[in-house]
Amino acid sequence: MDQMTLGIDVACRAAHQASLADERGRFAWTGRRFRTTAADLERLWAQVPAGVALTVVMEPTRNAWVPLAAWFRRRGAVVILVPPEQSADLRDYYSKHAKSDHLDSRMLARLPLLHPEGLRPSPGLGPADGLRRATKLRASLVKRRSTVLARLDAYLELLGPAWHAALGGDLALNTPLRFLAAGYADPHALRRFGKTRLTRFI
């Protein structure tokens, strides 16, 4: 399988810039501008030849690299982040041979030629890992809550159709849950409670 490298010059507010090179450093295209939107990323992906093993190389610029890394990983690409100490060395080298020390997309696309053994895939999503853990925790809590509410709804049906109709079957609201937790699922206790206090409760 052919190997290709997509170098991305990540921008925080402006458009990103990408260049694509093969394993010999020959460019398929350079300077393609795009933003972190689904439409732009799909257009960029369509310009990558089908069937190639793609490596994406970029610098971890603030947090702008996180959604890009997640998107390309879902497409099966290997994402490599240039460590700060390595990028500093490259800037020093690059500034001696070019007018600028800026690591543009062309330089990043050819980086595997300069460091064939020194590039390591990025294992995580950096600052987004905490958010991902919180999202998974929330999803787990929502799933458990939905399971509990479904079980309570089934118990409510056992009490009788009138109970289900009276509470509307909407146990996602706090009032029906407080009502049942107070012990008023017992019709005798509810009768002693009285209409006035029941109305005030609801």
In short:
With 202 residues, the chain is an alpha/beta fold. Helix content is 51%, strand content 16%. Strands 3-2-1-4-5 form a five-stranded mixed sheet.
Structure description:
- It is a single chain.
- The chain is α/β, with parallel strands linked by helices.
- The chain folds into 2 domains: 3-126, YqgF/RNase H-like domain (Nucleotidyltransferase, domain 5, 2-Layer Sandwich); 129-201, no CATH class.
- The chain contains 10 helices and 5 strands.
- It has a 5-stranded mixed β-sheet.
- Helix 6 packs across helix 7.
- The radius of gyration is 29 Å and the shape is rod-shaped.
- The relative contact order is 0.11.
- The model has no long low-confidence stretch (mean pLDDT 78).
Question: How is this fold's topology laid out?
Answer:
Elements: E1 3-9, E2 16-22, E3 27-34, H1 38-46, E4 53-58, H2 65-74, E5 78-81, H3 84-97, H4 105-109, H5 111-114, H6 128-159, H7 161-167, H8 174-181, H9 187-193, H10 195-201
Parallel strand pairs: 1-4, 4-5
Antiparallel strand pairs: 1-2, 2-3
Helix-strand string: EEEHEHEHHHHHHHH
Strand count: 5
State the share of residues found in helices, binned by percent: 40-55%
Structural class: alpha/beta
Provide the CATH topology of the largest domain: Nucleotidyltransferase, domain 5
Q: Give the distance, in angstroms, between the N- and C-terminal Cα atoms.
A: 68 Å
Key phrases:
202 residues; five-stranded mixed sheet; rod-shaped; 2 domains; Nucleotidyltransferase, domain 5; alpha/beta; 5 strands
